[in-house]
């Protein structure tokens, strides 16, 4: 049911109870009347939000094609309430699920960037387990499933381990922001409970992965490892030889939109010109 007006004004959805309550900002672009195409759902990365370049470009594509587009800010991000330091994969997954249940599209394509790729894969598992909208495709941009246990924990320095033990978090310089990245003990411990790279992942839908080969945050070998865990799905892996982690250049955006168009076309049986 898409009864929201087609503008960029956010709505707020209350998620959680008691001390865990937080207001999650959502922007919903309704589908064109009579459209049976799936809704696009944008899932941001760690410390990113729904106003980023890729999210806005995806919304623009939805407007062009008459599709619904759902964007949200996780708690502690963007316009949503809550402390960033309280964030965990389970918490942000709960929020994404709540938004999907609230908007209630019939069919969805998940588009996840970096950590959003991990949340997309967990969403696929939870939608299969709990029921809900039919998942008809996924586009993952530099996906970072299990990044806490696969990419952070093995590389922790002694001073970072000490900070985690004594303060419950450690800080890391960010190349994208003057503010440091903060990784909490809660995030790392919760990450172990949300691992997806410990067995076969069955999304039941086509998956297109876009991965830069000059990604300093998520090495391209990580994308190849993810493919190994998707043996039952139709997977396309596109390497971008000079691409970094953000993949926000015009040429990268063109690849993203083309990938989304491809999955929309296959889901409707009406190919969309690239």
Which class of secondary structure composition applies to the elements?
alpha/beta
* Total count of strands: 10
Mean of the pLDDT scores?
A: 94
- Cα Rg: 18 Å
Give the N-to-C terminal Cα separation. Answer: 28 Å
- Tally of individual helices: 8
Biggest sheet, in brief? 8 strands, mixed
What shape does the CA trace take?
A: globular
> Helix coverage percent of residues?
25-40%
Pattern of helices and strands = EEEHEHEHEHHEEHEHEH
Range of strand content: 15-25%
Low-confidence stretches: 1-6
Secondary structure layout plus pairing:
Layout: E1 11-15, E2 22-29, E3 39-43, H1 53-65, E4 69-72, H2 89-103, E5 107-113, H3 115-130, E6 134-141, H4 147-152, H5 158-167, E7 169-172, E8 181-184, H6 185-193, E9 207-212, H7 220-228, E10 235-240, H8 250-268
Parallel strand pairs: 3-4, 3-5, 5-6, 6-9, 9-10
Antiparallel strand pairs: 1-2, 2-4, 7-8
Helix pairs in contact: 2-3
